[in-house]
Amino acid sequence: MKIRVDPDRCQGHARCYALAPELFSVDDYGQSSVVGDGTVPAELEEKAHLAIANCPESAIEALAG
Amino acid sequence: MARVTAPVGDWSQDFEVLDAGYIEDPYPIWDDLRQSCPVAHTERRGRAWMLTRYADVVEAAHDIERFSSLEIGVINSDVQPEGYDEADAQYGLPPISADPPLHTWTRRLILPWFSHTRVAGYEKLTRDLCRRHIDGFLEAGHADAATDYAQQIPVRVVAQILGVPETLSDTFTGWVRDMLEFADDPERNLRGQEGFGSYLMAELERRKNDPGDDLMSELLATSHDGEPLDDRLVLGMAALVMIAGIDTTWSSIGSSLWHLATHPDHAARLVAEPGLMSSAVEEFLRAYSPVTMARLVTTDTEFGGSPMREGDKLLMNFPAANRDPEVFERADEVVLDRAINRHVAFGTGIHRCAGSNLARMELTVALEEWLARIPTFRLAEGAEVTWAGGQVRGPRVLPVVFP
Ligand code: HEM
Fold it and tell me: Do the chains contact at B340 and A12, CB–CB below 8 Å?
């Protein structure tokens, strides 16, 4: 599984970072981005889905692969 | 005045957010409106509309072309402080009262003050504050959880960030309540605006000569497009942080404690399973969202089948959206371990609460510290809990006992 954050949608709620700090980082302006290239290790897939489902701006996408 | 306070017969055509019954128990009214008239109307304080469905509130918050932030007050305040100047007033309280482009760059100046890293740095101070206040009433076996506790925390944290002496905290709380809670009481509203305004003005001058490491000093040292910031912008931004961070967070802490006082099983569960605190905090924010915001309709238009006119007001009822059964299962129940919770207590879109990291930290710490010292508590016998509402909803008197 691979994920990405749409920077135009992200408004800095930081829910993803709270739920899956291994997968996201947030800058001083609240802008979130994926750690590394967004590849999610199998053991973190559940957390990735939780982050996607909890984003109030629907800014996180799961990419195929 | 009589017109405004007259009882509401038909909520869909004549809503009144300061109605006493609504403030006390808005939930059945929201349920009715969501089903029968999701774009409610009133003419009580000028023409206004109110959205109660999640999808509508989210759509409106993102539609910044049609719905401007130049008017965000749920209640129009008609009073103006002495020396009020139209030109000055246009600076408002950026970024909350601004549309892009002013919104964009003023927001960026404020955001880093409430980043994750900065907020982590305020945690210890918040914890110490909570402990100190609990020390003050623990022995007595009873307290007003609103005035003795919830109300005391956020103002002191924000004061620290703004470099305001703690001794002024109660005065500040008074001013902020005058401005937000008593927006329809001209005398109190004016008192709040004047007191707060002249205080900030004096502080601004003081910091020009003797800058510190506080927000106002830093803004004074900032430039935009090669020019130093206008004093009026600095004042507006500092005022906003003060106003936006006090009543809101305090209301949230108070509502959460009200919930725990009336649901002892939930208090017991949080004590037994502290790992639930983070989902519980989101759930309290959802179920007892304090803040409703308004927008100014910029053009004759239609929304949800309702004809809106330029100059109308549109209320985005975030608290009602957060109880929409279309989006939340068991919407009217507090589910401490709710796994999926896309609530919009902090708004949505470009005005997402700039202080949300700070608010979450304060709410978490205030509840943790309370439960660590006072794991079992309930409403006092015959307690008369009172709520404030309108722009910000939360308990104002909350007598609890922990014998
Ligand atoms: C539980 C506590 C809080 C709640 C529920 C809350 C709620 C909100 C909401 C709904 C908005 C969006 C306004 C809109 O769409 O027009 C907002 C904006 C804002 N809030 Fe909060 N807030 C809270 C605490 C705080 C704190 C602690 C601070 C800072 C000390 C703060 C600072 C701000 C600022 C600066 C904005 C304006 C952001 C912008 O317009 O870009 N808030 N808040």
Answer: no
CA distance A11 to A7: 8
What residues contact residue B78 under an 8 Å CB cut-off, 6+ apart? B186
Write out residues with Cβ below 6 Å of ligand 1. Answer: B 61, 69, 72, 95-96, 107, 110, 114, 158, 240-241, 244-245, 248-249, 252, 290-291, 293, 318, 345-347, 351, 353-355, 358-359
Token pair for residue B101? Answer: 């482009």
* Cβ–Cβ < 8 Å for B126, B365: yes
- B225 phi and psi, to 5 degrees? 50, 40
Element housing B46 (H / E): none
Residue B261 CA, distance from chain mean position: 22
Q: What is the pTM for the complete model shown?
A: 0.95
Paired with B294 in beta bridges are: B315
CATH fold of B20-401: Cytochrome p450 (1.10.630)
Residues paired with residue B149 on neighbouring β-strands, in sequence order: none
Cβ contacts of residue B239 below 8 Å, gap of 6+?
Answer: B93, B196, B197, B200
For B106-141, write each residue's pLDDT tens digit. Answer: 999 999 999 999 999 999 999 999 999 999 999 999
Please tell me which residue of chain B has the smallest CA distance to A30: B115
Burial of B140 (0-12, 13-18, 19+ CB in 10 A): exposed
Rounded to 5°, the CA angle B47-B31-B293 comes to: 45
3-state secondary structure of B50: strand
pLDDT digits (tens, 9 = 90+) for B190-218: 888 888 888 989 999 999 999 999 999 99
What's the maximum distance between 2 C-alpha atoms anywhere in chain A?
31
Domains of chain B, by residue range, sit at 20-401
Ligand 1, atom 11, lies closest to the CA of B353
Are B363 and B281 in contact by the 8 Å Cβ rule? The answer is: yes
Q: Is CATH 3.30.70.20 the classification given to domain A2-63? A: yes
- The DSSP symbol for B44 reads B
ipTM of the complex in this document: 0.97
How do strand B378-379 and strand B399-401 relate by DSSP bridges? antiparallel
DSSP-assigned states of every residue in A37-59:
T-BPPGGGHHHHHHHHHH-TT--
